[in-house]
Every structure is written in structure tokens, then in C-alpha cells.
């Protein structure tokens, strides 16, 4: 086995960066493989084009006749670009993207054939999808599920396949994917925000949520990665002693990007350009061999699709460069993990970012309205927001080994804290003209357009206001952003609806002026929302204590965190806004719990296997060498041999001790697994895996890592941390 390690190391050292040809005017190739407006203008009739634009802007339905025109145009465009197949591209709850390719090619009898793609093939498909997770939905109802075209996200060509973004729903209409609830949540926040915008500007007709994600990842040489069974099967290392040098020198962060990685990034970014993914920023991250890629933000649904697509092509392109991309939140113990910051804001069709301070007191009152309502929404639903980012892999970051913590709190910076403090003192009821002028001039009017202290980022905050957007930093690097985006937009929608009711009541019943009513409601929100605001170090026990006093949840593990997903309040929330019905909410809970169990189960099997079948036999082999040596010394020196064999004898004993510990721990862990496999109650089973199986990982690892330090490097079968992390 150790020969595999050395072959891998040897191969990795010989690599050269690929030579990438790149068009340095990226705007010229941007979106070339996307059926965007330029392509549509060329390939569609006027009616077809305006029908698509209306569908995108107003959500109207496209009729079948027009769909036929569109599909024909789309097919011609795709063929002109070298495509032979088409697929409905969707995001089932497995976390990966799914596709099944069909050729345009069709026979028409008499030995003749044509290329064909009809409207109904564009609009709807019925993939054989019986093995996608459905949380019991398809068992209870209909066995079938179908995909339906989402015209708001443009079709694109990848390789030689035309990919059509679709939703994936059961025959009875329940969502089986990430996209469906997201689209419903975006619709809810659109309606709620437009209604509130009308207080400030009657011309607003649509509000879009924007998302700019920042994807962190590790690049590991593919031979090195393939030599580690834990990386191959679980995406992370389950053992491995930390190297003498880690990230403590901070010499990788923002440093020169290594040549091979650079060549990979250029290749990847080139592909992103063709696919219309507007990537803009790349840099080294904190840990060795860790990097980040970020785009220019886009409408949230499109941004989610682009991130899913990106994660897929990152792996594909990595193959060409002999890299394996590790997306896992914590691939290496003792080394920084990866997240995916979700930068979020709301903007109007009149071109205003509702989370950006403006130039006039009125626009700033609008800004404060959306800013404070978001804070209030996060406070009310902090536990649900935590649940939206829960996964076995993200548990390693949240509250376990690194910031941000599992407690959701908001960082807003010094300047806005001051503004809120002043607003809190606004008089109850009608405001005097003097007070109103004063407020407008000295409080609201003085919010600077650019908030300076927000450049001083508090990296431990899970949810931070950064000048003109909120940054949800606790999202994990493997996550599909649709999940947190669905929750965030839903809770903000709900909050805005409640806000409008309260303001309208004050206007109608108390005969208050609009501004007075808004100030009054916001003042009360500020008073009650303080518990969620926190500027300090979130990764500390002091904050844990403080947060507990404030009544904030601190759900450190996925089974605990997910529970709120089936609370009555959650089910009612999603149902009342038309985002998910009860069946859908419950199904998702079940799918995520199941996924958690499987995840821990696989990790447990893998660590058991590596410890027993790789580490222990190596330890025995090395121990035999030592024994041989000691026997030899005894032959030479007779009774005096111990003077020369002290170290060897001590090692022999220590090795036996670790072998014994590993064997008994693996046996106990296997027994715990067997016990919880019999458990039918999904909550009990997940908790069993979490609290009774998972804790063995650290213990087994401890003994294996000790052996790694003791055993001859020549014999050690597992590629070491220094080789994985420092091979460039
Ligand atoms: P960081 O310092 O955290 O990397 P950046 O300013 O580089 O922050 O922005 C990170 C991401 O935020 C980018 O994807 C960017 O496009 C996005 N972003 C910027 N403004 C907004 C906004 N108003 N709404 C949503 N995302 C935004
Ligand atoms: Mg960021």
C-alpha cells in the first residue's frame, strides 16, 4: 500500500502547469454558450421573444404554439454551436445536479432521419427519477416526477449538450428539488417588498433578490487524493497528523497563486465566461492549497443555478489538470475549512438597492426600513436560518472547530449601531415637526453612502451587514445556495408583510402620517431586535453564555438544528407564503436527516476500515522490524542488550497499546452502529449516530495519528498532510 503513496507523490512532483489559451477580452466570449437575449434575437420570432421576456419579467405562461417556435429556435442555435443532445438540467435533493441526455436525432420512417426538438420536449419531461430522494412524497402519492422548464434561467450548452434549467416536481405538484421552493420564496419576497416600496415610490413594480456567492475550495493533486481512501469516499481526511508547518505563517493567504492552480483557474474561468457565469475574483485563501472564486452578483435564482453549475464544472475541469477539488467544509483537521458566503440584497426595477444607504433622508428611511426589517426577520427566525445551513460536513465549522459559531447573530458595525440607538429614542405616537426635521437632518440624513467601518470585517460573524448587502457567512462550501436563500427570502417576506400591516394600522386607526407610522414601528423593532445584534468575537465561550441569556439558539449538530424544520411555526410560515406545504416541509426534514445518518455511517465505515486494514497492519509490520532488531541485539550483547534496546522496547510497547486501543474502539463503534441501524425513529437514529457513533472518530484518529508519528515513514501507507497540502 505504501507503494501507492510513493507512486502518487512521485507523479505529483513531475506535474507541469497546462498551457491555457485564453481570450483576454473576456466580454467578447461572455455568454457565448448561453441562449441569452442576443441569441434569442437571432433565432426567435418577435412573438416568441416577447413571450419569453414576459415570462421572465412577469412570470406569465408560455403557450404551446409559442413553445414550439422557441424550441425550434433553441435547437437551431444549439446545433449551430455543435450540440447533438439536449437535457433537462435540475437540482434534486441529492446535492448534485442531474441530467439525462436525449439526442435531437429522430427517425421518420423509410430510413430517413431529422433533428427534432418540439415545444413539449422543452416544456416538460418525465425522467425516470425513482431513485432521487423524495422523503416519502412519491411513495404516498404518485410514483412519477416530472421536470418543467424554468424560462427565468437561460438554457446553455455544456460540451455537446443543450442544458435546459428545470424544476423537478412530483406528479401531484410537490417540489422534489431545490429550485421550486426558491422560486416561490423569491416571488413572495418580490410581492412583500413591492408593497412596502410603495410607501416610498409608487413606480416600483418588481423587487429582485440578488445573490453573490464566494466559493472556497481546496485543490489537491489527483494522484495524491486518489491514494487516500478517506478522501475518495468521504471528501475529507479522517486521519492524518498535522504537519510541522501548517497555516500559522499565513504565507498562503492572498499570496502568489501557484502556477498549476493558476492555470486551472484560467481554464475554469474561461469555461465560466462561455457559460455566462460572471466570475470576477480569484485568490488564495488562508490554508495552504485553499482558494476562492467569486462572481459579480446576479438575480438569486440565476446565481444559484450558476453556483451549482460551477461546482460541477470545477470537478470536470480539474481532471484535465490532474487536480481533485475538495469542496468539503473541513477536509483537513487543524487547517481552515471552506465556506460559501452568500451576499444578499434586494433591488427594485427602478434601479435602487434597498439595502444601500442613499443620498436623501427619504431614500435613507427606505434603506432603514429594509435594513431593520431584515434584522427583525433574522431574530424571529434565527433557528430556522441555522437549520438552513445544517449538514454533517458544515457541523465541523459551526461551533465545532472554527468560526462562525452555530449561534446566529448579526454584525452591523459602529455607524449603524449609533443610528439605531438614536432611532430608538423617537417619541411614541405622532412626531412633532421639530423632531421630524431633526431626525431627517441629523439621523437619517447623515447616514453616509459608504459605511466605512464595514470594511473592517468581523470574520467570526455568521451574518454581517457589509455596506450595501448582508453577508450570510455561515453557509457551507458544499451547500446548494437555494436552501439558505429560500429561507432568508421567505422570512424577510413574512417580516415585510407584518410590517406593512402594522404601519397601515397606525395610519388608518391612529391617523398618523406615513413617516410617523414608519418611525414608530421601526422604533419598536429596534427595541426588540437587540438580542440578535453582536459585534464581538463569536467564537468564544463568553459569547455562548451571553447568547444563552439572550435566548438565542445554539444548535451545534445537524439533528438538533433540523428539528425546527418540522415545528408547527415553520410549517405554517412556509405554507402561508406558498413556499412549501406541510408535506414538502416534512419531506425535506426527512431527506436531510436521512442524508446526515448516511454521511456519518459512511465515514464511520471508512475510518474503521482504514484504521484496521491499513494502520494496524502497518504498525504490526514495523513492530516486527523492531522485534527483529531487539532479538539481534540480544544475540550480540546477551544480558546487557537492554541498555541498547531501550528505545525499541518502549516503541514496541507503545505500538501494542495503540493497536489494542484502535481495535477495541473500532469494535465498540461498529456495535454502536449496529444498535442504531435497528432504530426506526429517524430523530433517535440521527441523534444516535451523532452522539454515540461519531465521537469514536476522534478517539480512533488520536491513536492512528500517534502511530503515524512513530512508524518509519517508508512504511506509512497513507499520503501525509504535508504531501497533500504542500504539493503545488
Ligand atoms: P469580500 O470582501 O467578502 O470578498 P466583495 O465586496 O468582494 O466581498 O463581494 C463579495 C461578493 O458580494 C461578490 O460576489 C459581489 O458580487 C457580491 N455583492 C456585492 N454587492 C452586492 C449586492 N448588493 N448584493 C448581493 N451581492 C453583492
Ligand atoms: Mg465575503
Automatic annotation (TrEMBL):
<dbReference type="Pfam" id="PF18318">
    <property type="entry name" value="Gln-synt_C-ter"/>
</dbReference>
<dbReference type="Pfam" id="PF00120">
    <property type="entry name" value="Gln-synt_C"/>
</dbReference>
<dbReference type="InterPro" id="IPR014746">
    <property type="entry name" value="Gln_synth/guanido_kin_cat_dom"/>
</dbReference>
<dbReference type="Pfam" id="PF12437">
    <property type="entry name" value="GSIII_N"/>
</dbReference>
<dbReference type="InterPro" id="IPR008146">
    <property type="entry name" value="Gln_synth_cat_dom"/>
</dbReference>
<protein>
    <submittedName>
        <fullName>Glutamine synthetase III</fullName>
    </submittedName>
</protein>
<feature type="domain" description="GS beta-grasp">
    <location>
        <begin position="84"/>
        <end position="173"/>
    </location>
</feature>
<dbReference type="InterPro" id="IPR052725">
    <property type="entry name" value="GS_Type-3"/>
</dbReference>
<dbReference type="InterPro" id="IPR008147">
    <property type="entry name" value="Gln_synt_N"/>
</dbReference>
<dbReference type="InterPro" id="IPR040577">
    <property type="entry name" value="Gln-synt_C"/>
</dbReference>
<dbReference type="InterPro" id="IPR022147">
    <property type="entry name" value="GSIII_N"/>
</dbReference>
<comment type="similarity">
    <text>Belongs to the glutamine synthetase family.</text>
</comment>
<dbReference type="InterPro" id="IPR027303">
    <property type="entry name" value="Gln_synth_gly_rich_site"/>
</dbReference>
<feature type="domain" description="GS catalytic">
    <location>
        <begin position="178"/>
        <end position="615"/>
    </location>
</feature>
Amino acid at each position: 500500500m505504501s507503494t501507492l503513496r510513493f507512486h502518487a507523490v512521485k507523479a505529483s512532483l513531475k506535474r507541469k502547469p497546462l498551457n491555457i489559451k485564453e481570450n483576454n477580452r473576456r466580454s467578447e466570449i461572455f455568454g457565448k454558450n448561453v441562449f441569452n437575449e442576443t441569441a434569442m434575437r437571432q433565432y426567435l420570432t418577435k412573438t416568441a421573444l416577447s413571450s419569453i421576456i414576459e415570462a421572465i419579467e412577469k412570470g406569465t405562461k408560455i403557450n404551446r404554439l409559442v413553445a414550439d417556435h422557441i424550441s425550434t429556435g433553441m435547437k437551431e442555435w444549439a446545433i449551430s454551436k455543435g450540440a447533438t443532445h439536449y437535457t433537462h438540467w435540475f437540482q434534486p435533493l441529492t446535492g448534485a445536479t442531474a441530467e439525462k441526455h436525449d439526442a435531437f436525432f429522430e427517425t421518420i420512417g423509410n430510413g430517413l432521419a431529422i433533428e427534432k426538438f418540439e415545444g413539449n420536449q422543452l416544456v416538460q419531461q418525465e425522467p425516470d427519477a425513482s431513485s432521487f430522494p423524495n422523503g416519502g412524497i412519491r411513495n404516498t402519492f404518485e410514483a412519477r416526477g416530472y421536470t418543467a422548464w424554468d424560462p427565468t434561467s437561460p438554457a446553455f450548452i455544456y460540451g455537446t449538450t443543450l442544458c435546459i434549467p428545470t424544476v423537478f416536481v412530483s406528479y401531484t405538484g410537490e417540489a422534489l428539488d431545490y429550485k421550486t421552493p426558491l422560486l416561490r420564496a423569491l416571488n413572495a419576497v418580490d410581492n412583500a417588498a413591492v408593497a412596502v416600496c410603495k410607501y416610498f415610490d409608487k413606480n416600483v413594480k418588481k423587487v429582485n433578490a440578488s445573490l453573490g456567492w464566494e466559493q472556497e475550495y481546496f485543490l489537491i493533486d489527483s494522484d495524491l487524493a486518489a491514494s487516500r481512501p478517506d478522501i475518495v469516499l468521504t471528501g475529507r481526511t479522517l486521519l492524518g497528523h498535522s504537519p510541522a508547518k501548517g497555516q500559522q505563517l499565513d504565507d498562503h493567504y492572498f499570496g502568489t497563486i501557484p502556477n498549476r492552480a493558476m492555470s486551472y483557474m484560467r481554464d475554469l474561468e474561461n469555461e465560466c465566461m462561455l457559460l455566462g457565469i460572471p466570475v470576477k475574483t480569484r485568490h488564495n485563501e488562508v490554508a495552504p492549497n485553499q482558494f476562492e472564486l467569486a462572481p459579480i452578483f446576479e438575480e438569486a435564482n440565476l446565481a444559484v443555478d450558476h453556483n451549482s453549475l460551477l461546482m460541477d464544472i470545477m470537478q470536470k475541469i480539474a481532471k484535465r489538470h490532474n487536480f481533485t477539488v475538495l469542496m468539503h467544509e473541513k477536509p483537513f483537521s487543524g487547517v481552515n475549512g471552506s465556506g460559501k458566503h452568500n451576499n444578499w440584497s434586494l433591488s427594485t426595477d427602478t434601479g435602487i438597492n434597498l439595502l444601500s444607504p442613499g443620498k436623501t433622508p427619504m431614500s435613507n428611511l427606505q434603506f432603514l426600513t429594509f435594513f431593520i426589517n431584515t434584522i427583525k426577520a433574522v431574530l424571529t427566525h434565527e433557528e430556522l436560518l441555522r437549520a438552513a445551513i445544517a449538514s454533517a460536513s458544515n457541523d465541523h465549522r459551526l461551533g465545532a472547530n472554527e468560526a462562525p459559531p452555530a449561534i446566529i447573530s448579526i454584525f452591523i458595525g459602529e455607524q449603524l449601531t449609533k443610528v439605531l440607538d438614536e432611532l430608538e429614542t423617537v417619541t411614541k405616537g405622532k412626531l412633532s415637526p421639530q423632531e421630524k426635521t431633526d431626525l431627517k437632518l441629523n439621523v437619517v440624513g447623515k447616514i453616509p453612502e459608504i459605511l466605512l467601518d464595514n470594511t473592517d470585517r468581523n470574520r467570526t460573524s455568521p451574518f454581517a451587514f457589509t455596506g450595501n448587502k448582508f453577508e450570510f457567512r455561515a453557509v457551507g462550501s458544499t451547500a446548494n445556495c437555494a436552501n439558505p436563500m429560500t429561507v432568508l427570502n421567505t422570512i424577510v417576506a413574512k417580516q415585510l408583510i407584518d410590517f406593512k400591516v402594522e404601519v397601515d394600522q397606525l395610519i388608518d386607526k391612529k391617523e398618523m402620517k406615513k413617516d410617523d407610522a414608519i418611525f414608530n414601528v421601526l422604533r419598536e423593532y429596534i427595541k426588540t431586535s437587540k438580542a440578535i445584534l453582536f459585534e464581538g468575537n463569536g467564537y468564544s465561550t463568553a459569547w455562548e453564555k451571553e447568547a444563552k441569556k439572550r435566548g438565542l439558539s445554539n444548535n451545534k449538530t445537524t439533528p438538533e438544528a433540523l428539528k425546527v424544520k418540522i415545528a408547527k411555526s415553520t410549517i405554517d410560515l412556509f405554507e402561508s407564503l406558498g413556499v412549501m406545504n406541510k408535506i414538502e416541509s416534512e419531506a425535506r426534514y426527512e431527506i436531510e436527516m436521512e442524508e446526515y445518518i448516511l454521511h456519518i455511517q459512511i465515514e464511520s465505515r471508512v475510518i474503521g476500515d482504514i484504521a484496521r486494514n491499513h494502520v494496524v497492519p502497518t504498525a504490526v509490520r514495523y513492530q516486527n522490524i523492531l522485534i527483529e532488531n531487539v532479538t539481534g541485539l540480544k544475540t550480540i550483547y546477551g544480558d546487557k542488550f537492554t541498555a541498547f534496546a531501550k528505545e525499541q522496547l518502549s516503541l514496541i510497547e507503545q505500538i501494542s497499546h495503540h493497536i489494542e486501543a484502535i481495535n477495541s474502539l473500532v469494535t465498540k463503534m461498529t456495535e454502536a452502529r449496529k444498535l442504531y441501524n435497528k432504530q426506526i425513529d429517524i430523530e433517535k437514529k440521527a441523534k444516535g449516530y451523532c452522539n454515540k457513533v461519531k465521537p469514536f472518530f476522534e478517539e480512533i484518529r488520536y491513536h492512528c495519528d500517534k502511530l503515524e508519528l512513530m512508524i518509519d515513514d517508508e512504511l506509512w501507507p497513507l499520503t501525509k498532510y504535508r504531501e497533500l497540502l504542500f504539493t503545488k
